[in-house]
Structure formats: structure tokens, C-alpha cells
Amino acid sequence: MADNAAPLLLDASRMVWRRWAGVRPTGIDRLCLAWHDHYAARAQVVLVHRRGRHILPMAASQALFRLLDDEGPRDRFRRRFVAWAARNLIHLLRPQSGLGRLWLNVGHTGLNLPHLAEWVRAADIRPVLMLHDIIPITHPQYCRDGERARHEVRVKTLLRIAHAILGNSQDTLDRLNAYAASIDMAVPRVLPVWPGTPRLAMPAGARPAPSNDFIILGTIEGRKNHMLLLNVWERLVAQYGEAAPRLVIIGRRGWACDDVLARLDAGGFGSRVVETGALSDDDIAQALAGARALLFPSFAEGYGLPLVEALDAGVPVIASNLDVFREIGQGVPDLLPPDDVEGWAAAIMAYAAPDSPARAAQMARLAQFRAPDWPSHFKAVDAFLETL
């Protein structure tokens, strides 16, 4: 954007409530933070929540952005945010016009709130919104109760109010187009733009020789298809015993996966299946450094950050044959149907071989992989915003 352009309107709602709750950042949170870093210095804050919608003046906005830059503990953020709100109460109570400017909201935040479209019109703003997936609509069986209805409201609101839509992948936008056509709604201008890839701090020096470990990374939930891998490892343990490769499950326990959790709690895999819970980025990098491959057997994804993180770190990936994985994997990973137990077992054992030709072939392809980065992301977004 030109330096002399009017300030943008940057939504900070998600960043505020996530910092208030003190929760571990997700992929969407990291994207919100990147947009904060790129745009905050020349933006005014928009806050959207159940009790109101606010456009804040520049001084109050910059004070809040500085507060969000503080990575201190949750309680300190809460105290400082309350103090900030008290100082700026008059601005929180006084409606402001957006003067026809762009409202950048990349966190889905507030799109399911009632009367948002009316506020957008009254405030005179032009929303530029990012869609991360429509999984609760296409795969509701893997989501929390009520999430399909909430997400349908979000997506319909997005289609109704958006001046333009960004997609985290072309696949996400393709699915949005199909859904919009099914409900007879138009899609505004769109731009697919991959998020930047967080660089894992892989161990310094020579990479350790591959261990016999295979990693699955992410929250344990039904959509991630951990059950497929437990079925695979049941076969491998029965056939090879303690000589079977090891499955390392990294991630907290989530939802829609009672059968998986019961299976893990029942055991029966000896030392060949290990559940670590959530790990720090450094510990994840350490685990991946010596892994045979990252496994990613999901039934549905809007993007798939662990896939590009692993490839960027030089770690092979075996994943589901999803369109989005074909897109972001750039032809590198080996892709298999998410319900093919025999195929996954064969691929895993092929990669576990001491001098695996299959693994060597992917390592050769990996040399051509280029991870999406933030400079390219914002170059594309800035150029797109100029056209709006």
C-alpha cells in the first residue's frame, strides 16, 4: 500500500480474545499475528464482539497494538487491557465511520454475530475477509455440535458483506464457489494466498540419521484420522512386534474422537505407539529431525501447515490424497486414500527400510520444494488491496 494512503482498518478481535484467554496459538492465530506485524503501524483497530462493534481512532489503536505486542503473561495482558479500555471508553461508546475504507479481517472473528451486515453498511466499510475452510459445512461429522450451523452463518455473512475474499488455498476458494452456487449466492473478487511457513528451529549441525519414528502432528480429532494409523500399527505390531517402526503422536486431545482416545487408553501397542501431548516448537523440531516421515492422513483440510513445515524442514511426508495437499505439497509428498489401511501400512514399511528407495525418491523431489513465505504472501496481498 502507498505510504500516503488513508489508514487501513485492521481487525484485532481474535488477537484480543485469544490473549485474554491465554490459549496456545493456532495456525490462524499465527496468520493474524503476521498481519498485525505487517499492517498495524498504518492501521486503525476494529473490534467486533457480542456487545458491540468499534472503529477506534489512531492513537487508541496504536496503543492497543503496542499492548498486543507485549508477549508477557496472560494476567498482565488482562490488567493492561482493562486499563486501556478504561482510558478509551469514550471511543468504545462512540460510533465511528469507516469512510469507505477496507476492513481487513483474517480470523473469521465476528462473522456469525447477528446484524453484522447492517453495521458494515452503517459504518461505511468495505470488508476484505479471509476464509480458512468450510469443513464444518462439508464434514460436520468431524466438528463440535452446532459448529455447522455457526459456520454456515459465517460463510453466508462473508458472501453477503465481503468486498473481496482471500482464501488460504485455491482449494478453499474452489469449495467456497461450489457452496455459493448450491445456495445461489454470488462470490465477490477472490485471491488465493498461501500463509507464510513458520521456520522450525531444526537442530544445528549434521542431521541425525533417520530413526524408526513416524510422526503425526496436530490436535487429536476425528478429522485427522488417527484411527487409520492405529489400525496400521495394530497390524505392524502383530507382524513385527518390537521390531515394528514407532508412531509418535504429538498434539493435545480434542473432539469427535472418543473411539481413538479409547483405543489409545486401552494400549496393546507395546512401545510402538507413543502419545506425547502438545509439545513446544523446539521439541517438535527435535522429534521431526530424526523422523522417517510425517504422516498426515486427514479426511479434510483447508490448508495443512504441518505438511509445509515438515517439507520446509527437509522431512518427507506421507499424506491423504486431498486436493489441497496436491496444491501446497507441490508434487513432493506421497499421497494415499485416507481409508486405505493396507496402502498406508505398505508405504510406512517401505519408508522404514534402511535404504528406502521410496524415501530417497521423495528426498530428491524435496530439493525442488519452496515453502510459502510471508514476503511473497504480503506482496500478493498488497498488490490485491491496491486494486480494491
| Order of the strands making up the biggest sheet | 3-2-1-4-5-6-7
Strand percentage: 15-25%
Estimate nothing, just give the exact number of structural domains: 2
Instruction: Please summarize the sheet with the most strands.
Output: 7 strands, mixed
CATH architecture of the largest domain: 3-Layer(aba) Sandwich
What can you tell me about this protein's structure?
The chain is an alpha/beta fold. The protein has two domains: 8-196 and 374-387, Rossmann fold (3-Layer(aba) Sandwich), CATH 3.40.50; 213-366, Glycogen Phosphorylase B (Rossmann fold, 3-Layer(aba) Sandwich). It contains 17 helices and 13 strands. The chain has helices at 13-21, 27-39, 58-69, 74-87, 89-93, 116-123, 135-138, 147-161, 170-182, 226-240, 258-266, 281-289, 305-312, 323-329, 341-352, 357-366, 374-387, and strands at residues 8-11, 43-49, 52-55, 101-105, 125-131, 164-167, 189-192, 213-217, 246-250, 273-277, 293-296, 317-320, 334-336. The strands form two sheets. A seven-stranded mixed β-sheet has the order 3-2-1-4-5-6-7, sandwiched between helices. Helix 3 (58-69) runs antiparallel to helix 4 and helix 10 (226-240) packs across helix 15 (341-352). The model has no long low-confidence stretch (mean pLDDT 94).
Sequence-ordered SSE layout with sheet pairings:
Elements: E1 8-11, H1 13-21, H2 27-39, E2 43-49, E3 52-55, H3 58-69, H4 74-87, H5 89-93, E4 101-105, H6 116-123, E5 125-131, H7 135-138, H8 147-161, E6 164-167, H9 170-182, E7 189-192, E8 213-217, H10 226-240, E9 246-250, H11 258-266, E10 273-277, H12 281-289, E11 293-296, H13 305-312, E12 317-320, H14 323-329, E13 334-336, H15 341-352, H16 357-366, H17 374-387
Parallel strand pairs: 1-2, 1-4, 4-5, 5-6, 6-7, 8-9, 8-11, 9-10, 11-12, 12-13
Antiparallel strand pairs: 2-3
